[in-house]
Structures are given as C-alpha cells and as structure tokens.
Specification:
Blueprint lengths: L7 H13 L1 E3 L2 E4 L9 H8 L9 H21 L11 H9 L4 H21 E3 L5 E3 L21
Helix pairs in contact: 1-3, 1-4, 1-5
C-alpha cells in the first residue's frame, strides 16, 4: 500500500469525492455538485490549505487522485466483506463512514471546507515574501467521526 503524506481528514475528503462525485459510464467525471465547482482541480484547491505546508500543490493533487482511485477500489470490493483486524488507514476511513448517512459525510466535509477557507484567510506574508500561517492552532478541527444526522443524497 502506498504511503500518503496527507492528514487523515483529507482522506475523508477523498472518500467524499469518491462516494458523492458525478458518475458517467462508471467513471467519476466531476466533483460532487454540492461544492459548486466543475473540475477536480477546483475541488482540490478548496481543501489544499488543510495539507502540510511543505507539500507542493502538484504532489497534493497527485495524492488526492491516488486516494480517490484507492477508495474506488475499496468501495467496489466491499460488497460482502466484513471489517478486518489488519485494516489500513484508508480502509478504516471507509469502515467509519460506510454506513453513515450522506448528510453526516457532507456536514463533516463542509466543516473542513470552512476550516480550509479560514486557514486560507489567515495566511500572510512576512517581509521577505515568505508565506506563513498565523494562529492555525486556534482553529477548531471537526471530529473525524462527524455528527449524527438523517439521510440526504450528496
């Protein structure tokens, strides 16, 4: 299994992309409509500020693409499977969210979107022109297990 350099919260975003994207002919052709963007690049940009500040955007995009692909395989193979003792982190994200409602998943991802927007607004530049992030630790991060809710198609 590939080692990813992204936070597990971005794994949930990738799972959301896979579970709720627009499919055509079995292919995930565009991001979930609820995000209000038309391309995967635009969708990835929304959450980029949640990634490690040392990762290049191109590496982040590559990892998010890989995560979407991996989640597609996990979802496809999960039909009649039970949770294993030796699940990796992607499988754990899947098992955590598999039976949760679309609304729960959507609420969690929208909370992350707000966090990403807030982080982006806190970015500033020092006198040398270097980008820095101020007071990130003060921003509350949503619980990985999300909130309870009812059914809603994303």
């Amino acid at each position: 299994m590939k080692k990813y350099n992204l936070d597990e919260k971005l794994f949930v975003v990738a799972y959301f992309f896979t579970r709720c994207c627009v499919y055509d002919g079995g292919f995930d052709v565009s991001p979930p409509k609820i995000l209000g963007v038309a391309t995967w690049s635009e969708a990835y940009k929304i959450f980029f500020s949640l990634s490690d500040s040392n990762i290049f955007y191109s590496a982040y995009v590559s990892e998010m693409d890989s995560l979407r692909f991996e989640f597609g395989k996990i979802i496809e193979k999960s039909e009649n499977r039970v949770r294993g003792k030796n699940s990796n982190s992607l499988q754990e994200i899947f098992w955590i969210w598999k039976d949760r409602s679309d609304e729960d998943l959507l609420n969690f991802v929208l909370d992350l979107k707000k966090l990403a927007e807030r982080r982006q607004s806190l970015k500033s530049f020092d006198l040398a022109g270097n980008e820095s992030i101020e007071s990130i630790e003060s921003i509350p991060i949503p619980d990985l297990f999300g909130r309870a809710g009812s059914q809603l198609s994303c």
